[in-house]
Amino acid sequence: MGHIVPVIAVAFATAIPITLKTAWVRRITAGRCGSQRRRTEADAMTGLILYFAGVVNKP
Question: CB 18: neighbour CB atoms within 10 A?
Fold first, then answer.
């Protein structure tokens, strides 16, 4: 159980800047479609975090 926190912290530390950068780029390029794409990115981030947690939790 002790290994879960570092992995999630690393996942957040690497994924959040990437997500912010892509969201910023898409906000400029997408215009009208921005809100839908940001919602999709949030779903993708949630899935990524759940994936990391699931991988680490496997015995």
Answer: 10
